[in-house]
Every structure is written in C-alpha cells, then in structure tokens.
Amino acid sequence: MSALTINPLREGIANRLSPEPCTLVIFGATGDLTHRKLIPALYNLAAEGALPPAITIIGFARREKTSEQFRTELETATRKFSRTPVNDDLWKSFASSVFYHQSPFDDAEGYKTLAREMEEADRKRGTGGNRLYYLAVAPDQFPVILQHLRESGLSTATPGSWARVIVEKPFGKDLKTAQALNGLVSEVFPERDTYRIDHYLGKETAQNIMVMRFANSIFESLWDSSHISHVQITAVEPLGVEGRAGYYDTSGAMRDMVQNHLLQLLTLTAMEPPTSLSADAIRDEKVKVLRSLRPLTGKDVFDHVVRAQYSAGLINGQPVPGYREADGVPKESATETYVAMHVTIDNWRWAGVPFFIRTAKRMPKGGTEIAITFKSVPRVLFNQSGHGIDENVLVIRIQPDEGVSLRMSAKMPGSSLRIEPVKMDFHYGTSFGKATPEAYERLLLDAMSGDATLFARRDEVEEAWAFVDGIEEAWKTRTDDLAFYDAGSWGPAAADELAARHGVTWRRM
Predict the structure, then answer these.
(1) pLDDT tens figures, 328-353
(2) Residue 242: its pLDDT value, please?
(3) How does pLDDT run across 115-164, given as a tens digit for each residue?
(4) Where are the alpha helices (DSSP H) in 314-457?
C-alpha cells in the first residue's frame, strides 16, 4: 500500500511526505540562524529530493547586497555547517532558487516590492501562491514585521493557496508577554497557520518517543507508577554563554531551556495515548500533562528547585572563566546557569513517581537524554548471592548519539552466580544505515506540508509559562539560595541532596 494512501489514523504521517510548492521568505536572512541552520537544512532536503520542485527562497534583510553576493555567502556557510558534503552541481541548482530582498523591516515599500517578487515567482517558478514566512529575528522585531505583512495583504492567502508563519523561540519571557505575543500573531495569522518552532521536537529520537511507547506493548504496559521508580530528563553542555551574555543574563537556564525544551520532552514522556496521529490530538495530550504539573510557588520552590551559577574551572583540561567574568555579564549577576528540579505530575498514571529535570552549562560532557528507571524486583531470590541487582533503566538519547539503550541484569559466564548489568543498545546511525536528519530539516518540511505536530500550540506555550512563572516569582524574593559550582564539575552539592531526598542519584552522561 502506498505511503500516501494509508488509513486516516496515519494522515499526519502521510502529510509530512507531501511538501507543497511555495515561496519561503526568511526575515533576518543575514543572521547566524539562516547561515548555520536554515540554508544548510534546505540544501540537505534538496540533496535528498525532499523539497518540492517548485520552491523559491527569498532572504529579507536590511543589509545591502545582491542575490549573487547572498548566494556566495550562503555557499560558504553551507560548506561549513551542512551535515553532508556540498555537491557543486547540486548547489548550483539549489542556489538558483535563492534570492535576496533588501529592505528595512519597517519600510512599507519593501513589502510591496516583496509582493511583486513573489507574484513573479508564482508565474515563472510555479509556487502556486503559497507563502511561508520565517521570522528568524529577535522577538522585538515581530510586531513591525507582522504589522506590515498584514497591511500589505501578504498574510492573507489567495483562494486555493495558503500563508503560514514560523516563529522562533523565545515565545515571550513570562506568561504575560507570551500571551501578548500570541495575541499579536493571532491578529495576523490564525492558529492553524502559526508554527512555533522548538528544534528539540525535530530531533529524530524525540519524534520516536511516541512510537517507542505506543507501538511496543513491552514498554507501554510498564509505563506507569506501578512499574517506574523515577524519571530523569537532562540537557547539559560544556559550553558557556559563548557571546550570548546579553540575551542569556536576562533569561537564564530556566527560561532558556526548561520552559520550552525540557518541558516539551517531559510532555512527550508522560502524555497519554492520543486519539489519533493528528497534530491537535497529540498536542491535546501534551497540554494535559502541563496542566497536571503540581505548581511550585513560594517556599515550595526552594524545597524542590536548585539554581546555581558556574565559577572558574577546567573544561577538557583547559581553564575557563566563571560566568560573572564573561563579557557583558554584570559582576553581581544572580542569573542561573544550572537548574535541577523535582517535578510532580498529579494524575492517575504518574501518582507518586518523581520526575527530575536538570540543565546546565559548563558540564564535563554534553548531551540530552531521558532516563526511565524501573522499580527493583523483590530482593528475595538473590539475597544470598551477595550481589546487588541494579534497576532496569531505559535511556532515550536525544543528542548527540541519538538512540535508545536498556540496562538489564545478566549472569556472568562461570561456575559461580555473579550478576552484572548489561546494556542493549540501539543507534539510529548504525541501525538504519543513514545519517540522522537535522531537526530543522524535518521542521521546515513539516511546515511546508501543513503538519503542525512537532510545533508548539498556543496553549502549550502559555501553560508552560504559567508553571515556570511561579518559580521565577519566588526567585525574585531572595538570592541566598543561589549555589555555585566549578566549571567542569557535575554541579552543586545542593542538587545531589535534592535527588538523595527521594533515594535518587543523578546519572552521569
């Protein structure tokens, strides 16, 4: 049976295979995101034959340059950042669909000229009047761009075509600003045409969480409080702020990582089976998880959340400065670069199961994983052997080595009874014999296909902010809880104590 003629329950999967002809306009086309992620992703899609044959890519930015200069810059960046080598002939073909449009974001005339360029692309390149706008700019630029898209009529699709917008995070800095931003976007684009991008959701292993759970009875039948001891979700990196101090010091690890990436992974891990694979059915279940989070406010924050900041230390044997010594960081900054927290999900499936979330900069190693630890078997049969039995742990590695591993107990060869943990390991790269696509490749393709499954819905964003705001408000009342840890260490002792209160030890990556 063809992949495009499958039953309605798989409609979401089928849609992803059918990107439609369109004109993609990237606002902020001279920025890092375009050069490091978006254009390399689009090139790799072209290399795999996944892009629609009729596509036009227009970079919209303020700097003066020609389309040819723009293409040359993009080629240099793509050769550096693409996950696959650049083929000269393929690049030439791909680059022929790329154009540059110079205009300030607040110039109405620039949008009129853009409209004429897109109409010409429709006639000459067969893009069918479909428009995909990517706001690869700082959030303070959103209002003026959205206003001009509306006033110029570019946000309104002609009959038989569509107009969509992709919005990069951060989606606000608290619930109030997120609601204001969502309200602003909704005045120009309806929710069905709004795609809030979180690149963690585009990673292959993140997408596979639902398949692993709901397509394998061995896991789903054990996926509850009767069998699971606790869950750890970790995203750490050895890097510091790396020139992002201006943004990071007003954000911190909670807003930068927990509110979006880690809470999204939490919802995928804890959600109930959706009624179908449609985008809204899946996102409905994710929102229910967020609404089931036990609020953390006031004193509870200091009992269940640890925040810390890195001091000078060693990374890979090389000395690195502390956070407060980075350019652009105030000398008395209390911004957290480390967050560890105990989260409770108040619903039937997860009653009594502690979830632990941890994110940090300047760790000895980097990576993102979800570790599900199952309850121990009764200590009866093997008590006299003198050997303890480790718990079974299912680890879902989001990055860098995407895959899944299961730790189980086995008898070592020999005449004596000796029980040791062994690991069953699945790696995407080796198991399927092909490179794992970059997250932006999948997400761009889905936006062209009209599949919003891997994008955050408005209520998801706002529910996540409502949970995080309670923590942030408590932090404003005092700073004496801010701990410190040496760069290159695994974090402050307070985080170990938090986990130990529940009989848990943090996993080493």
Answers:
(1) 899 999 999 999 999 999 999 999 99
(2) 81
(3) 999 999 999 999 999 999 999 998 889 999 999 999 999 999 989 999 99
(4) 428-432, 439-449
Find out whether 172 and 138 touch, Cβ atoms under 8 Å: no
Neighbouring residues of 286: CB distance < 8 A, sequence distance ≥ 6: 264, 267, 268, 271, 460
Query: Residues 456, 462, 463, CA angle at the centre, nearest 5°?
Result: 95
Structure tokens at 447: 């936006």
Neighbours of 95 (CB within 10 A): 21
Lookup result for tokens 């000229």 = 113
Per-residue H/E/C for 262-314: HHHHHHHHHCCCCCCCCHHHHHHHHHHHHHHECCCCCHHHHHHEEEEEEECEE
Are 189 and 163 in contact, with CB atoms under 8 Å apart?
Answer: yes
24 Cα distance to chain centroid: 22
Q: Give the per-residue pLDDT at 12.
A: 40
How many CB atoms sit inside 10 A of residue 75's CB? 19
Report pLDDT digits (tens) over 190-231. 999 999 988 878 776 777 888 888 888 888 889 999 999 999
Contact 181, 151 (CB under 8 A): no
The fraction of the chain above a pLDDT of 70, given in percent, is 90
DSSP letter (8 states) at residue 174: S
101 is catalytic: no
User: Of the ranges 11-20, 68-77, 473-482, which one carries the lowest mean pLDDT score?
Assistant: 11-20
Up-side HSE of residue 205: CA atoms within 13 Å toward CB?
Answer: 21
Domain ranges of the chain: 21-161, 202-399+457-500
> What is d(CA 84, CA 437) in angstroms, rounded to the nearest whole number?
10
How many other C-beta atoms can be found within 10 angstroms of the C-beta atom of residue 212?
17
Catalytic residue among 35, 101, 261, 304: 261
CB 224 within 8 A of CB 350: yes
Backbone phi, psi, residue 276, to 5°: -160, 180
Q: Which of residues 245 and 286 earns the better pLDDT score?
A: 286
Architecture, CATH, for domain 202-399+457-500: 2-Layer Sandwich (3.30)
Residue 246 has pLDDT above 50, yes or no: yes
Instruction: Measure the CA–CA gap between 314 and 363, rounded to whole angstroms.
Output: 10
Domains 21-161 and 202-399+457-500 share a fold: no
Instruction: Give the CATH superfamily of 21-161.
Output: NAD(P)-binding Rossmann-like Domain (3.40.50.720)
